[in-house]
Amino acid sequence: MRDRAPFGLRLALWLCPPEFRALYSAEIARELREKSSAAARTGCVLSVAVAGLAMRAENVLRDVALAVRALARGKLFTAIAILAIAVAIASNVAVVSVIEGVLLRPLPYPHADRLVFASPLRTSPTEYSYPRIREIQARSRTFAHVGALVSQPATLFGHGRPVALYGISVTEDFFPALGVAPQLGRLLDAHDRGSTNAVISDQVWRRYYGAAPDALGRTIRLDERSFTIVGVLAPGFRFAEPDGLYETAYVLPADPRAAINGSNVAASYDAIVRLAGGVSLAAARADFQRVLEEINRNDPSAAYDRPAATLTPVAESIAGPVRPLLMLLYFAVCIVFVIAVANVANIALVRAVTRARELALRTALGATRGRIAAQLVTESAVLALAGGALGTVAGVWAVHAFAFAGAQMLPRWENVGLSTTALLYALLLVAVATLVTGVLPALAIRHDLAGVLKASGNTDDGRSNKRARSVLVITEVALAMAVVISAGLVLRSFVGLTNVDPGFDARGVLALNVNLAGPRFDDFATQLRVLNRVANGLRALPGVSAVAIAGHLPFSNDSSTRISATSGVKEEVVPINAVGADFFRALRIPLLRGRALDERDRVGSPAVAVVNAALARKYFGTLDVAGKRMYSGGRAITIVGVAGNTRNSLTQQVRPRVFLPIAHVPGYRVYQLAVRTEAPVSRSAIETASAVDPALPPPTVRRLSDAVASSASRSRAVALLFGALALVALLLSISGIYAVTAYSVERRTREFGIRKAVGARARDVVAQVVGAALVQSAAGIALGLALSAAFGTALSSLLYDVSPLDPATFGAAVALLIACTIAAAATPSVRAMRVQPAIALRYE
Amino acid sequence: MRDPSTLLPLMPSAFHILLALAEGESHGYAIAREVEQSTGGAMRLGTGTLYRQLKQMATDGWIADTRSDDDDALGRRYYRLTPWGRRIAQAEAERLESLVRLARARKLLPARA
Question: A514: helix, coil or strand?
């Protein structure tokens, strides 16, 4: 007779619950030995294993049923706990989904880690030329492909009304650099250089060519030039720019002739480089420096600023600027999760003590310590899973809510959705929540059976248990404090931004984009004539009080020139606005000195300018500069007036600025018209403008006030997100303080009754309860202040004109937390106050 | 006492274990053999199923451990029917009997001689 059962049986028995094992393992082992055939023995072992698993499953189901019943009894606790965990998991799921879509998911190109932007090609305005791109490619030893692109908006003709489309021109190495494939036909290569072949997007193919395979070989008319379609891009194709991925309606081959010397606006190339396989970024950077040095030696006019020359990985360039924000958000939702778990653990601890009798009774009836612990952990698991499920569903909604807030500030937004990673992360959080909120009370329950059963209704609650609860509440308050302060800072900075004066009155002004594309409008005189006809048509609309033509209006992309106050001095770059008559009146920009630009400033009239106050002060030290001269490119310009300062973005400081007559600045392709109106005229404005010339695509219209508001949109989104998280953190802490106070009040009912009976006033009782809660919160508040002071600088990139240590915000947060503590402690203390001595003394 | 009819119908394996124990006290392996013999081999209880059932029945009070403190030298546990277990077995037998009566009335079985 062997002492030990065979391995297979021991394994099968191990699957069975311990009680079962203790009862029958000897008997089963004996029975197994009596089986004659191997098949019978295998069947025996298998049947034990199956029965073991079934019994385990039964136990779990029984625990779950018990847990659900126990949780259903404590409705308030259950609701608070599930909600707390749900909210915490929802915000985590949302933020992790965003982080995955924006930061973690690879760019949609094969081996995207080898793609880099070569930056000096972007910073030097005269050096973007096509030959230079080819030269860099030829000289480099580490670049597999140097692709280059330039934006090439155009008007599509031949499909109903002309349509303004956005597209790009690319060099022959552009597609090889990205490494993408077409869905139909072919992409552009060296043979297409300077040709009239074109590749169209999936969208254009579907919309204008009915997704027909025979679209290949057909023509597409852009700006009245005809191109032959040779391929269709894959659906969802996007090209990379340093700040994000963008859609394009078509891709044209770059024209090398138009690109030389940067004389043509269409020649400012962005370069995207694919590094050869196995090349490190450091090696590529060194190689790039060497290439630029060689170019500088051969062509002194190149003058590349080598120290500033950098290669930036495309993914880093796009994600880098938003990483700090997303990391901060992640940090904040982690804190919310910790607060939620601390909160639930706290309430569970309180319940474990009040349930000591129930649990002791179960122990007396034969439940082992392990079974009781298993039941408590099961209760937590049921809570955490319910919260997790609710939170995941809410997280999906939260992702969409983020879409609303985040679309304007996040690159690669289109990539954000609920991801597997986020779901796995939610599961992990559920597991952590289960452990922390289940194991803590399991450790806290007393096993001194007799003591618990002997004690009357009021069981003694151990000192360590009390301390654990205090630590949890202090942690909650401290973390909530940190989140509230962060939210306060970003909120203050947002409010500050919305109060910034842009220097003009955007209310009631429509901005019309008029696209004068194509050879038909190549002639500047024609452009001005068409623009004036559009402007006159708009002036005739009812309710319109002023119309002004401009190269661009405030709060859109700026252009610039170089000026100096005296001849022969080094000229500095300043932003310009090319504007027509009525510009200052239409935007209500105050004219401080001299005259505005008007009809006198025609093509060929003397060079004049209006400058803003900042420029007058900086270069002349006075506002009285009307009649003085400044110089641009060595050419004298007479200053005829001084205007008030305007901004081009709420987040930027006021800069010196020059207003030039529109008739003196040729070269724009898209003009903006400002229409000041008292009536809603968007639709009639579009019709009026379109009627002027059949080759004119319908203009796009936007309220100028929207453009101003969207300049604060990032700040608003950040304030919204942090505000929401702070609210959640605050609510969780309040419920934590409430639960602990309510518990202690309930336990002291008898004491309060006696004190009232011997003459204590209700006010004293309330003061004592609230005071105890305040002492606890004070520790949390102090800790939270220290945390915020230590980590506040991490926020500074999100703040405008607000110090991360802003005393007003810190003070307000302290006041808020104190008020919340008093509110949370007030309800239970009012209950304490109402206790009738007689009832309290019977409270056993 | 409770009404056993809420527990009916019993699982066949449970009924057979109760039937085997109606003879007197017995241990697991003997019960399985008895069930197999009395059914002519039609009902075979797997080892795991058998002991799982026994434990459940003991927990629910249908059967009782006869010598809870000192098992025999072979590590066997002996069980007997409790009065409650006997009533359950009776109730199941009556339920089956009434079904058989119904089957005779409908001429599915020959009338008794």
Answer: strand
**Which one of B31, B33, B52 makes the best mutation probe of the A interface by having the most chain A beta carbons within 10 Å?**
B52
Phi, psi of A524 (to 5 degrees): -60, -40
Q: How many helices (H) and strands (E) does chain A have?
A: 27, 25
Q: Does B73 touch chain A (CB under 8 A)?
A: no
Query: In this structure, what token pair is assigned to residue A72?
Result: 């259903």
Q: Parallel, antiparallel, or unpaired: how do β-strands B63-65 and B78-81 relate?
A: antiparallel
The one-letter code for the residue type at A621 is G
Q: Where are the beta strands (DSSP E) in A242-329?
A: 244-246, 250-253, 270-275, 311-313
Contact B104/A at CB under 8 A: no
Q: Is the pLDDT of residue A2 over 50?
A: no
Task: Answer yes or no: do B47 and A34 touch at CB < 8 A.
Answer: no
CB contact under 8 A, A43 and B29: no
pLDDT over 60 at A126, yes or no: no
Instruction: Decide if the complex's ipTM is over 0.90.
Output: no
Mutation target among B51, B60, B68 for the A interface, most CBs of A within 10 A: B51
Separation of alpha carbons B65 and B42, rounded Å: 27
The distance of A31 to chain B (nearest Cα, Å) reads 7
Q: Considering CB atoms only, which of A12, A30, A54 is closest to B75?
A: A30
8 Å CB contact between A737 and A777:
yes
- Residues from chain B that touch A12, judged by Cβ atoms under 8 A, are 48
Using the Cβ of B49 and the Cβ atoms of chain A, whether some distance falls under 8 Å is answered with yes
pLDDT grade for A266, boundaries at 50, 70 and 90: very low
Q: What mean pLDDT do residues A451-463 have?
A: 54
pLDDT of residue A333 exceeding 50, the answer is yes
From A33's Cα to the closest Cα of chain B, the distance in A is 12
Closest listed residue to residue A119, CA positions, set A307, A324, A319: A307
pLDDT at A160: 81
Residues of A in contact with B57 (CB under 8 A): none
User: Is residue A170 helix, strand or coil?
Assistant: strand
Chain B residues near residue A52 by CB distance under 8 angstroms: 48
- B69 pLDDT higher than 70: no
DSSP lists the bridge partners of residue A546 as: A676
C-beta of residue A137 within 8 angstroms of C-beta of residue A145? yes
Q: Each residue of A343-356: pLDDT tens digit?
A: 888 877 777 776 77
Q: Does B51 touch chain A (CB under 8 A)?
A: yes
A842: confidence class by pLDDT, cuts 50, 70, 90: low
Task: From chain B, pick out residues whose CB is under 8 angstroms from the CB of A48.
Answer: 47-48, 51
Q: What pLDDT was estimated at residue A264?
A: 36
Which of A23, A32, A43 faces B55 most closely, judged by CB atoms?
A23
Helices (H), A693-761: 704-710, 713-747, 749-757
> pLDDT digit string (tens) for A351-375?
777 677 777 777 777 777 777 777 7
pLDDT tens digit sequence for A141-177: 999 998 888 878 888 888 888 888 889 888 888 999 9
Residue recorded with tokens 């009631």: A508
Q: How far is A42 from chain B (nearest CA, A)?
A: 11
Residue type, A244: G
- pLDDT at residue A74 in the model: 72
